[in-house]
Each structure stands twice: as structure tokens, then as C-alpha cells.
Automatic annotation (TrEMBL):
One Gene Ontology molecular-function label: dioxygenase activity
Top-level lineage group: Eukaryota
Natural source organism: Cucurbita moschata (Winter crookneck squash)
BP term (GO), one: defense response to oomycetes
UniProt KW keywords: Dioxygenase, Iron, Metal-binding, Oxidoreductase, Vitamin C
Catalysis: reaction(s): salicylate + NADH + O2 + H(+) = 2,3-dihydroxybenzoate + NAD(+) + H2O
Keyword Oxidoreductase: yes
Cofactor dependence: L-ascorbate
Short name of one Pfam family: DIOX_N
Name recorded for this polypeptide: Protein DMR6-LIKE OXYGENASE 2-like
Stored PROSITE patterns: FE2OG_OXY
Length: 346
């Protein structure tokens, strides 16, 4: 297979010295690294979850609420996911993407309805400009429905990833309780509002790029799901928009980056913010990131909590199913306009 015909960026990257034209973004839609502020320019909060189940719970809940309202992004430490499990996931991801091309391609599909698939970019069928990324997408709740679809190479993949998914789900449910309380609602409000729950994850691989200033790993977007828990290695690449300025969220060991998704913004009646973020690439080093996306079930009806709607705070969004929302998001792609705006009350 020629370099130009490679299905995956990982296999293309080692063969090119100039960025292929299909990855080159228009001049007005490039990273513009000189305008990105360092993390010191805006400090995204790092919240210690150690006291979430102690006498200081109210303080931790208040910190989480403030972060959801002000930033849409925060980091958590002392989160309960073992460090050896985190390191194991990052190791597995590297091992998978370093497998021979023929072995990785056993999982390849450009069909977005497949619950386990390896693909590239975002939506190879519809997008005009490709992104410098490969990803392995795995549905992972309920585990027993999906685990036997997952790759069995590396040999420990299914066992280790299943344990990680279970641990991250436990953390997610703790965060959803705290976020519910921060909105002044009973702690089970969000969990009870999203139907049967869904959980999926991606192992993202960003190879070194010959001209990183011309492209993205992923362009600016908001997440269509409820909440995202991101594990990343120690290579910078994630940036979030705050006050119309892009800020780098550089890695801190043994933390998760939490960001609010579009469904949470709708449930909170615009009180909590799903903010634009993007992934940039570099010319020197590969980067791994592993987001876990927690979602409503497809038939869950989403809309502002009635407790957050009154004469002074009218409902910002109409009622919609998560299935309707996700189909709209996928068809729109990672567009500059926010998908959530299409569901606002006129």
C-alpha cells in the first residue's frame, strides 16, 4: 500500500516529510500557536476529591460547582483510580498503536454505528479536511455487551481495559452526585435523568506531524455527551477556550481532566458550560489521550431540570432525546457553530 493510500495516520506519519494536502486547514482555521496562552495565564482548578466523602464534602461540592460554572473544565486528584491502572492504560494504548499495521487494521471501520472500531480523523465520510489523529473507539457499559468485541492484542487488553472502565465509571458517578448537589438538587438527580446510561471511550493516538502549524489533532469542538473524563500522557496538546482565548491544559501526573458536555449544559439550563476545546500536535513526539465519555441512553429525554426553571430563569432548551442530539452532532461534524444552539427555545 502506498503512503498516500494509508488508511491510518500512524502509518502515514513515518513516510512523509510534508503534510499531505488533505490535512492542511484554511489559513483562518489554523492553531496559531503564538496566540495560545500558557497555563499560568488562566489557572484551571485542581480539585482534591479526598474529602468528597467526609465533613468537608460541601466545600468540595462548591469547588466543583464553581468550576463547572466558570470554566467548564477542572482537574481532579485523589480520585480513587489507582496510579498503576492509569499507567497500565497508557502503556496498553502505546502497545496497541505500535502493533503491525495488519494487526491494527483488524479493528478498522469507517462505520460510526459500530460499537468497537479503529478509525482516523473524526468522520472520514463527510469532512473536507482530515485531522492528524487515529482512534480506537470502545463502547464499555454495560461491559458484558461489548468486551468480547474489543481487540485481544495486546493479550491483556480486554482484562485491563475492563477494570479501568469500571473504576472510571465509579469515579464518574461520584462526580455526577457532587454536580447534582452543586445545582441544589438531590444527589441522584442527574443519574436518574439520563435513562439507562451509556459509557464509551477512545484511545487517541497523535503521531509526530511534519507541519503541526497547518493542522489539528482535533479542531475546536464541544463534547456532545454528559461529562468527559480525560486521561492524557505527559505530552502537551489539549487547549481550552476561556474568555475568547485559547489556553493550554498541560498534563499533571495522576490527574483526570473533567469537562462538561452539551447534555450537562442543557440539564443545568445554561448554568454550567460546555466549552470549546481542541487538540494540537507537534513535530517531535507522539501523544496519547484516553477520554471516557459518559452519556445518556439513546432514548433519554433531555431538557432543563424543572427546579432550575422559573419566571426569572426561563427554559433555554427544548426537550430532545439524546439520540436526536447525537445524530445532529455527527451530521454537523466538528463545525464552528455549536450543535447545542440548534436546540435552543426560539
Amino acid at each position: 500500500m502506498s503512503a498516500t493510500a494509508k488508511l491510518l495516520v500512524a502509518d502515514l506519519a513515518s513516510t512523509v516529510h510534508q503534510l499531505p494536502s488533505r490535512f492542511v486547514r484554511p489559513i483562518d482555521d489554523r492553531p496559531n500557536f503564538s496566540h495560545v496562552r500558557a497555563p499560568t495565564g488562566h489557572s484551571f482548578p485542581v480539585i482534591d476529591l479526598h474529602n468528597l466523602h467526609g465533613p468537608s464534602r460541601a466545600d468540595v461540592v462548591a469547588q466543583i460547582g464553581q468550576a463547572c460554572e466558570r470554566d467548564g473544565f477542572f482537574l481532579v486528584k485523589n480520585h480513587g483510580v489507582p496510579e498503576e491502572m492509569i499507567n497500565g492504560m497508557l502503556r496498553l494504548a502505546r502497545e496497541f498503536f505500535r502493533l503491525p499495521e495488519c494487526e491494527r487494521l483488524k479493528s478498522y471501520s469507517d462505520d460510526p454505528t459500530k460499537t468497537t472500531r479503529l478509525s482516523t480523523s473524526f468522520n472520514v465520510k463527510t469532512e473536507k479536511v482530515a485531522n492528524w489523529r487515529d482512534f480506537l473507539r470502545l463502547h464499555c457499559y454495560p461491559l458484558e455487551l461489548y468486551v468480547n468485541e474489543w481487540p485481544d492484542n495486546p493479550p491483556s487488553f480486554r482484562k485491563e481495559v475492563a477494570e479501568y472502565c469500571t473504576s472510571v465509571r465509579e469515579l464518574t458517578l461520584k462526580l455526577l452526585e457532587a454536580i447534582s448537589e452543586s445545582l441544589g438538587l438531590p444527589k441522584d438527580s442527574i443519574a436518574n435523568s439520563i435513562g439507562g446510561h451509556g459509557q464509551h471511550m477512545a484511545l487517541n493516538y497523535y503521531p509526530p506531524c511534519p507541519q503541526p502549524e497547518l493542522t489539528y489533532g482535533l479542531p475546536g469542538h464541544t463534547d456532545p455527551n454528559l461529562i468527559t473524563l480525560l486521561l492524557q500522557d505527559q505530552v502537551p496538546g489539549l487547549q481550552a477556550l476561556h474568555d475568547n482565548t485559547w489556553f493550554a491544559l498541560d498534563p499533571i501526573p495522576n490527574t483526570f481532566i473533567i469537562n462538561i458536555g452539551d447534555q450537562m449544559q442543557a440539564l443545568s439550563n445554561d448554568r454550567y458550560k460546555s466549552v470549546l476545546h481542541r487538540a494540537v500536535v507537534n513535530s517531535e513526539t507522539e501523544r496519547i489521550s484516553i477520554p471516557t465519555f459518559y452519556c445518556p441512553s439513546q432514548d433519554a429525554m433531555i431538557g432543563p431540570f424543572k427546579e432550575l426553571v422559573d419566571d426569572k430563569n426561563r427554559a433555554v432548551y427544548r426537550q430532545f432525546t439524546y439520540s436526536e442530539y447525537y445524530k445532529t452532532f455527527w451530521n454537523e461534524g466538528l463545525a464552528t457553530k455549536r450543535c447545542l444552539d440548534l436546540f435552543r427555545v426560539e
